[in-house]
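User: Hi! I have a protein structure encoded as tokens and I'd like to know what sequence might fold into it. I'm fairly new to this, so please keep things simple.
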């Protein structure tokens, strides 16, 4: 089975309020497959970071543009498939009110080799942070507000605009 012939359910996106199970998502992608040599999972969690004003995050509310968010996430997976020999890729993103420790986003990639799986997962996260229509509102003791885009996220995504996967013996 080639990357282009991968099982259709090995690729997909979901936006949901409910928590996800990273292990179950990876297992579903690889069940019965003997052509996959590497699976990379990335789970982003809500953290109780300390702001410059000394307040701690108590909750994060994620909003999205229904339909458009899924469409953009699917487009990102298609772009990753064009760049790397992927046998599976899945993005699960939550919306609603989350508290520190809650899972926010999951990216799972599968490939015959680890290099492609790692690069594709990093690409998907970098582009997801800057291209998918999600908005975050922080709740802090006595404060809060909408989270602004970060220059560091833009710089991380920009590295992929001119970068194609490097040839690797691990491919």
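Assistant: Happy to help. Inverse folding works backwards from shape to sequence: for each of the 171 positions I chose a residue that suits the local structure. Here it is:
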């Amino acid at each position: 089975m080639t990357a282009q012939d991968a099982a259709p359910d090995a690729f997909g996106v979901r936006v949901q309020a409910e928590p996800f199970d990273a292990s179950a998502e990876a297992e579903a992608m690889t069940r019965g497959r003997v052509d996959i040599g590497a699976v990379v999972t990335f789970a982003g969690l809500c953290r109780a970071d300390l702001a410059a004003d000394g307040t701690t995050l108590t909750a994060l509310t994620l909003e999205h543009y229904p339909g458009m968010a899924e469409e953009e996430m699917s487009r990102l997976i298609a772009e990753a498939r064009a760049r790397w020999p992927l046998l599976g890729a899945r993005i699960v993103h939550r919306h609603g009110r989350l508290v520190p420790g809650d899972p926010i986003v999951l990216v799972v990639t599968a490939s015959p080799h680890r290099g492609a799986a790692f690069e594709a997962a990093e690409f998907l996260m970098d582009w997801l942070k800057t291209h998918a229509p999600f908005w975050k509102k922080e709740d802090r003791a006595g404060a809060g507000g909408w989270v602004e885009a970060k220059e560091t996220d833009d710089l991380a995504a920009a590295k992929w605009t001119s970068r194609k996967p490097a040839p690797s013996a691990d491919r």
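A useful reference point when you look it over: The longest strand covers residues 103-111. Feel free to ask if any position seems puzzling.
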